[in-house]
Design goal:
Elements lengths: L1 H26 L7 E2 L10 E6 L6 H12 L4 E2 L2 E6 L2 H10 L4 E5 L17 H7 L3 E4 L2 H5 L8 H14 L2 E6 L3 H5 L3 H15 L8 E5 L13 H18 L2 H6 L1 E5 L4 H8 L6 E4 L8 H6 L3
Parallel strand pairs: 1-3, 2-4, 2-10, 4-5, 5-6, 6-7, 7-8, 8-9, 9-10
Helix pairs in contact: 2-3, 6-8, 8-9
Bound molecules: phosphoenolpyruvate.
Length: about 300
């Protein structure tokens, strides 16, 4: 019996060392970042700039992109940056991306524990790997790209599961072109937020950023004008004040997403209710850092 116990202890110790070794390898050599300017003052919202690499890149192309970002100079101290690669490239980012850029996923499962869910990644597994953020509710996933899409109830469920696992979430909402044209933008945004507001406790919102992404502006080169975006962001904040709380409304960050790039970032980020961006196409280029610096 003692022999079995001793062997079991030895195996446990060896596995423990292996896990530590793997963590050391994964986190070894992540280059240090640097910052410039003043951090957000108490009570002010720090900007959040997310990069959504979508289903793009190879080990080689993303290694080059990461090198570009690592050499891109300081990040304004009032800006938080998170990059969301494909799941297969998360390890590469965690091992080689400068350490002042967080790594996020683009989706997670709705199941709160790992198990027999072929093809899924559980939120707790993302946390275990060192991932800090996840995008939930992106319009491409809501639409489904040829498969069944995700409705607002499912998005809310994933949001809650992700938060409970310890992830921070960029929760994407936004209207389609015909919805904007028929004047129901805010009704659409409210219908996407409502199931989340029902499921979340007030404290959960500390780890949520709302990414307002008009679908007609995503990947199209069309951008909402700063005034148009500000108007919707303000309405979203008012909705949160009414349906969650005034405190959450004043603290929650609302990012704009939709063909944001270096050339238009400064004007968008200057709007009082625009607290950052969720960037697709431009996050795959050096121009991403012009967006990050747009907050200066
Ligand atoms: C996005 O994917 O969330 C997005 C806003 O894409 P793009 O910047 O390319 O419009």
């Amino acid at each position: 019996m003692d022999f079995v116990k001793n062997q079991a202890q030895k195996v446990k110790a060896a596995v423990g060392e292996k896990v530590e070794d793997v963590k050391k390898i994964v986190h070894k050599g992540r280059p240090k970042g640097s910052s410039t300017g003043e951090p957000a003052a108490a009570g002010e919202r720090a900007y959040l700039i997310g990069g959504n690499w979508k289903c793009n890149g190879t080990q080689e192309s993303l290694t080059t992109l990461i090198q570009t970002f690592n050499a891109a100079g300081p990040i304004p101290a009032n800006v938080e940056v998170a990059i969301c690669p494909t799941d297969i490239h998360i390890g590469l980012a965690l091992a080689t991306l400068r350490d002042d850029i967080s790594v996020g996923a683009q989706n997670c499962g709705a199941n709160d524990k790992p198990g027999a869910f072929t093809g899924e990644i559980c939120a707790s597994q993302l946390v275990d790997a060192g991932v800090q953020w996840v995008i939930i509710g992106h319009s491409e996933r809501r639409e489904g790209f040829g498969m069944a899409g995700e409705d607002s109830e499912l998005c809310a469920k994933k949001l809650k599961v992700a938060l409970d696992a310890g992830l921070k979430v960029m929760f994407a909402i936004g209207e389609k072109k015909e919805e904007r044209e028929s004047g129901v933008t805010m009704e659409v945004c409210a219908s996407q937020l409502q199931p989340a507001a029902k499921l979340l406790e007030e404290k959960d919102w500390a780890n949520v950023a709302i990414a307002y992404e008009p679908v007609w502006a995503i990947g199209t080169g069309l951008t909402a004008t700063p005034e148009m975006a500000q108007e919707t962001h303000k309405s979203i904040r008012e909705w949160v004040a009414e349906h969650v709380s005034a405190d959450v409304a004043s603290a929650v960050r609302i990012q704009y997403g939709g063909s944001m790039k270096g050339a238009n970032a400064k004007e968008l980020l200057a709007q009082p209710d625009i607290d950052g961006g969720l960037i697709g196409g431009a996050s795959l280029k050096a121009d991403f850092f012009n967006v990050v610096n747009g907050a200066l």
